[in-house]
Amino acid sequence: MGKKIAVYITSDEKRVLGGDPLSLLIKNSEEQKQLILDLGRALRADTVQLKNGDYILITDEGKG
Predict the structure, then answer these.
(1) For 42, which of 15, 33, 55, 56 is 20 to 30 Å away at the CA?
(2) For the residues 49-64, what does the mean pLDDT come to?
(3) Could you give the CA distance from residue 42 to residue 31 in angstroms, rounded to a whole number?
């Protein structure tokens, strides 16, 4: 089983791209943190914060 980026979350509209994975633009940092927690639980995903401040939620293939 491999890994898959399920969601990319950013506060910078220049980094929002269409397609797969789902990209979400959320500028409010508190809203962003809550959504990351909620989606992480719902998808049973690992959360990684990138050096640029964006987040990716990673799932196992076949889950989420």
Answers:
(1) 15
(2) 87
(3) 16
The model carries a pTM of: 0.85
Calpha distance 32→61 (Å, rounded): 24
Range of the domain at 25: 3-60
Closest Cα to residue 44, out of 64, 22, 24? 64
**Number of domains observed in the structure of the chain:** 1
pLDDT at 63 over 60: no
Buried b (16+ CB within 10 A) or exposed e, 46-63: eeeeeeeebbbbbbeeee
Residues 6+ apart with CB under 8 A from 32: 9, 11, 26, 55
Which two structure tokens, joined as six digits, stand for 60?
A: 């196992």
